[in-house]
Design brief:
By secondary structure, the protein is an alpha/beta fold. It contains four helices and six strands. Strands 2-1-3-5-4-6 form a six-stranded mixed β-sheet, with helices on both faces.
């Protein structure tokens, strides 16, 4: 069985940082097989670290990703987990993914076989609730990307065609 975790992360009080949370909320309304779990982690890095060691084959983390492209650009990234050194999450409400991945190792757990980050280029991290227009418009394409990744994962053990490191597409 191929277990999949779809994790939405971010802070809803910082504008576009709430992107991953909103995508997870919408994905939770989809019909999923019993081996797919959709969760909103918000800014709870420790909670995500513990969930990652629960025996998933694939983890899809939805978050904002700043890489300098136009706001609303969607990225699918496969992070280099070998380069993550041991460490801990300094704050139980910290959501720096490198720290979360390091904490998994510190806890003695193992990461899922594959981790993908589906991210969106933000426009505004100001103190407000709600997404900017370009990031809101990116949500349907992000949901479609996650669905395609999960469907590819369910059909085959190899998903290499579903995501390439650093790949991106416009929303």
């Amino acid at each position: 069985m191929n277990r999949v975790l779809i994790a939405g992360v971010g802070n809803i009080f910082l504008g576009d940082d709430g992107f991953g949370v909103e995508v997870a909320r919408r994905l939770a309304c989809e019909s999923w097989s019993t081996d797919v779990r959709v969760m909103d982690f918000g800014i709870r890095g420790v909670h995500l670290a513990y969930e990652l060691i629960a025996g998933y084959d694939l983890a899809i983390i939805v978050d904002t990703v700043s890489r300098g492209a136009a706001p609303g650009t969607i990225y699918v990234i496969e992070p280099d987990l070998e380069g993550v050194s041991c460490g801990s999450v300094s704050d139980s409400h910290d959501m720096v993914l490198d720290n979360v991945f390091a904490m998994v190792r510190t806890l003695g757990g193992s990461m899922p076989r594959r981790v993908l980050i589906v991210g969106c280029e933000p426009a505004d991290f100001g103190e407000k609730i709600g997404l900017s227009e370009p990031v809101s418009r990116a949500i349907p394409n992000t949901i479609r990307a996650v669905l395609e990744i999960v469907q590819g994962r369910m059909a085959s053990v190899s998903v290499s065609s579903a995501a390439e490191t650093g790949a991106h597409k416009e929303a």
